[in-house]
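Could you show me some protein's one-letter sequence and the numbers that encode its backbone in two labelled lines?

___
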Amino acid sequence: AKALERRARRGVRPRLQNELTKKYAIEKLRLGWSPEQISLRLPIDHRGQTISAEAIYQFIYATIFTKRKNEVAGSHEDLRVYLPRRHRRREKKGFRATQKLYQTPLPSIEDRPAVVDRRREIGHWEDDTIVSRQSADRVKSINERVSGVALLGKMKNGSSAESNRVVIERLSQLPSTLCKTLTRDRGTENLDYADLEKELCLNCYFAHAYCSQERGSNENLNGLVRRVYPKKTDWRFVTENDLRQLEYRLNTRPRKRHGGKTPLEVLFERTGCALTY
């Protein structure tokens, strides 16, 4: 019986047993401080007291909440609402399951021309797929790395055929000289890139797995789209016209890096190409 009891609670270490530390952490969490900020500030406000950010996270998730029903245990306060991300469950970093999606080596971002990194030449694009659990419909986001021009299109599902269709439709409206490279992630909808290269006469390159920072401009674009259409948006009820209006708003926003000029203005000044809405 003792062995079974010990096995049930193996690996679980009670956290924040010091009442001063626990009271301090809860008070600062309510103020919107992150566990990292609390960990840094505690020794300054209370000399000799230390606590790691990891211990605070474990106190919130492992000690307070039951794992099966994901409910608050006893009379404890639900402290997850004060965390920056507010995740219901916590996943350990570095243990994300990986999938072997493509047997043939993909063109790597490491082989992409160096001129793309310098952001001096217009014609180098990035793309991604914005998904929703509410429906199979998705949104394809495409951006040009120098001007910041954004293109949006609606996908009916997550197939590679739909992904290629939207990218070809949106980039075909531009002169072929402005379609030189396309950098994307290793999602299944992006892997049939040969037809895309043939149709648009460009070269596709793939970022490393789980390295979204290698497509930072596109991730920023996705964030701007999420401001208008947050997570849990059902893309079935978002029309192509809605996306085109948002696209126009994004392309007519002044940009600090362009000295207040808009992406459409920069594109026209640098290439003579004008997108109309």
